[in-house]
């Protein structure tokens, strides 16, 4: 079986012969429910496969036409590529003909054919009048220019012509699945004894293979794909545009239902809101009001929502604006998804639109208006939308954010990056980021300027602490993780360097005022005279009766210059004292092969605590290594 990756869906008023027409085309009866057969009407969506003359197969979704079952029609419409609008010649255009056509427009279906059914029941004049009615209806719609084909399921008239037109449209609408991750909204769930849960749907994008793992959004966890069927035949894989059944291992039937989405785990995000362009359809009987409750239909899901428009006065039929749509239960949404809005009583279709930005903070009218530039960019194209998102945080946006928004695999994200002028990427702590190159240069210059300014204002200071540098203008708007990246990039580019735990400019030397010079000399003298038992750093200012902040700054400068050696945060030795302590240890190790803590303590004439601290510092700096629990050291 050779599949064409596109799906045909029926639309039209009740009793206009949609199901009979599908049977005439495919040989399959889509009415599977006992109630459907009993009442003679389609209640839920049905499925069939259409075998084309060239041996290829395309999927068909048959939708109910009754007003009460439009929610089911919408579930079926979510995955179709080609519309077969069915109009009975003896009835002509009816209310659900108009409503279904509006839904097709709102769902972005722009390829299709009109099947003028029951042509055997009318005379030529009535048939021509029906043709004229249909032509007027579709003239300014998304199906403008669609071929109108008179046909009869009873006599077979026009069926071959209709099949050829559908084949032509199917060949024109093949879907590519290479750049997107797999997504399939669930429209039917059942169990098979010995196999477990089976879900069916129209694959929106991407591809799936047996044994791959998938997520079920919302709240269904994840599962392994145990088996795949395309149009009723077992297959190793499925792709965009196929009618597919997945046998899922690891979940029960109760974990999945219509309205959920089976998708790749890279895009397993459920959102409770999204920003969209909302359209009040020209055929709507009512305006769409600001902050009012409506019924939202997206994919195969339906849920109550509230629509917050940028316009407080609402939008009239034929108008559009940006809005944030909010709802209670999470829904798997990506950029570009289509949706329909109906009255909360489900009596009328009002409009719909295009999802632009899932999630994010809750927005009111001012927030929606402030973001208008971003929403417009997203409306124009993926490239412009991605650029607008990176422009908001030019120092770095996670590539995973762009992947989640646009549903892009590695190939897709690389293609998008090539289209985005002036951006680059970097990796940091296992994540990849997109940034604006010009902004990156500006950040590095700002970091250098911030350190220079600090040195001018704090002449005796060694350098600036990283945490303090992060709070300067250069980095104040960034999350800490990315500020850390740009500091390290400034260091690797030679604009700054680490000096112990401080950051300074290359070649920087502390400059002391006359008063600070006197304090420095007093501290050095205290450490020279103190030998191996000098003042503690924490109490130095009290011991020497010095200003606390000045003493701390100058000790840091002396550590940075190498005059003091920081054995621990509170214990430092003058450089000559430390050199002698190290040389004595080296002579003893060379003489006896090793030295333990007690021996070194006695050798230096100091307490056990000080001896341990000096030995551990020598271990840390690579001079010695500890070899047993007695504190014995050997040369490293």
Overall structural domain count: 6
CATH topology call of the largest domain:
Rossmann fold
Overall, the morphology is elongated
Distance between the termini: 71 Å
Q: What share of the residues does DSSP label as strand, in percent?
A: 25-35%
Specify Rg, calculated over alpha carbons: 36 Å
Q: For the record, what is the CATH homologous superfamily label of the largest domain?
A: P-loop containing nucleotide triphosphate hydrolases
Task: Catalogue the unreliable spans.
Answer: 35-41
Largest sheet: 8 strands, antiparallel
Tally of DSSP β-strands: 32
How many helical elements? 20
CATH architecture of the largest domain: 3-Layer(aba) Sandwich
What is the strand and helix layout of this fold?
Blueprint: E1 2-11, H1 18-26, H2 34-39, E2 46-51, E3 56-62, H3 70-77, E4 82-88, H4 95-106, E5 111-117, H5 124-138, E6 147-150, H6 159-172, E7 183-185, E8 188-192, E9 196-202, E10 207-209, E11 213-217, E12 221-230, E13 233-235, E14 237-239, E15 243-249, E16 261-263, E17 271-280, E18 292-298, E19 301-309, E20 320-331, E21 338-343, E22 349-358, H7 365-370, H8 372-380, H9 382-392, E23 397-398, H10 399-406, H11 410-419, E24 423-428, E25 431-436, H12 437-457, E26 464-465, H13 466-470, H14 480-492, E27 497-499, E28 502-504, H15 514-530, H16 540-543, H17 548-561, E29 564-568, E30 571-574, H18 575-592, H19 597-604, H20 608-620, E31 624-626, E32 633-635
Parallel strand pairs: 1-3, 1-4, 4-5, 5-6
Antiparallel strand pairs: 2-3, 7-16, 8-9, 9-15, 10-14, 11-12, 11-16, 12-13, 12-15, 17-20, 17-22, 18-19, 18-21, 19-20, 21-22, 23-25, 24-25, 26-28, 27-28, 29-30, 31-32
């Amino acid at each position: 079986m050779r599949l064409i990756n596109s799906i045909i869906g029926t639309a039209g008023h009740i009793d206009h012969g949609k199901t009979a027409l599908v049977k005439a085309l495919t040989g399959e009866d889509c009415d599977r429910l006992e109630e459907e057969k009993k009442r003679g009407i389609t209640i839920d969506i049905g499925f069939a496969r259409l075998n084309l003359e060239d041996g290829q197969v395309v999927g068909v979704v048959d939708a109910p036409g009754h007003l009460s079952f439009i929610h089911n029609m919408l579930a079926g419409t979510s995955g179709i590529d080609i519309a077969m609008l069915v109009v009975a010649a003896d009835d002509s255009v009816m209310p659900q003909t108009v409503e279904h056509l509006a839904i097709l427009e709102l769902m972005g279906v722009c390829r299709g054919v009109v099947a003028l059914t029951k042509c055997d029941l009318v005379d030529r004049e009535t048939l021509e009048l029906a043709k004229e009615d249909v032509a007027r209806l579709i003239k300014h719609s998304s199906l403008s220019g669609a071929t109108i084909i008179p046909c009869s399921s009873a006599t077979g008239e026009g069926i071959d012509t209709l099949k050829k037109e559908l084949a032509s449209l199917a060949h024109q609408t093949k879907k590519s699945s290479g750049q997107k991750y797999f997504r399939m909204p669930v429209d039917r769930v059942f169990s098979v004894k010995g196999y477990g849960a089976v879900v069916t749907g129209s694959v929106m994008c991407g591809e799936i293979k047996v044994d791959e793992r998938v997520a079920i959004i919302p709240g269904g966890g994840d599962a392994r794909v145990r088996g795949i069927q395309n149009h009723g035949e077992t297959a190793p894989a499925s792709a965009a545009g196929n009618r597919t059944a997945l046998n899922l291992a690891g979940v029960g039937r109760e974990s999945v239902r219509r309205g959920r989405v089976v998708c790749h785990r890279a895009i397993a995000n459920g959102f409770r809101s999204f920003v969209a362009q909302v359209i009040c359809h020209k055929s709507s009987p009512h305006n769409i009001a600001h902050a009012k409750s409506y019924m939202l239909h997206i994919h195969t899901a339906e849920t109550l929502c509230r629509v917050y428009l940028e316009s407080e006065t609402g939008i009239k039929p034929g108008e559009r604006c940006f809005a944030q749509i909010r709802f209670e239960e999470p829904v798997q949404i990506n950029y570009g998804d289509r949706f329909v809005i109906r009255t909360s009583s489900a009596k009328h279709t009002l409009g719909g639109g295009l999802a632009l930005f899932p999630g994010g903070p809750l927005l009111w009218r001012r927030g929606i208006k402030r973001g208008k530039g971003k929403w417009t960019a997203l409306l124009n194209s993926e490239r412009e939308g991605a650029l607008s998102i990176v422009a908001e945080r030019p120092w770095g946006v996670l590539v995973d954010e762009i992947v989640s928004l646009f549903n892009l695999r590695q190939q897709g994200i690389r293609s998008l990056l090539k289209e985005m002028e002036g951006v680059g990427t970097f990796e940091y702590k296992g994540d990849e980021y997109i940034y604006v190159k010009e902004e990156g240069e500006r950040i590095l210059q700002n970091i250098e300027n911030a350190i220079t300014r600090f040195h001018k204002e704090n002449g005796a200071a060694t350098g600036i602490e990283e945490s303090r540098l992060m709070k300067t203008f250069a980095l104040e708007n960034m999350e800490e993780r990315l500020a850390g990246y740009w500091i390290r990039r400034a260091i690797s580019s030679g604009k700054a360097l680490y000096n112990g735990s401080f950051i300074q400019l290359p070649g920087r030397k502390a400059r002391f005022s006359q008063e600070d010079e006197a304090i420095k000399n007093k501290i050095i003298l205290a450490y020279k005279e103190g030998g191996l038992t000098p003042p503690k750093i924490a109490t130095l200012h009290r011991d020497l009766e010095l200003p606390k902040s000045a003493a701390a700054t100058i000790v840091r400068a002396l550590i940075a210059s190498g005059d003091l050696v920081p054995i621990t945060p509170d214990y430092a030795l003058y450089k000559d004292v430390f050199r002698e302590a190290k040389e004595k240890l080296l002579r003893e190790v060379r003489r006896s092969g090793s030295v333990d803590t007690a021996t070194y303590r006695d050798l230096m004439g100091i307490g056990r605590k000080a001896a341990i601290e000096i030995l551990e510092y020598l271990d840390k700096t690579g001079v010695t290594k500890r070899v047993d629990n007695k504190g014995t050291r050997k040369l490293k």
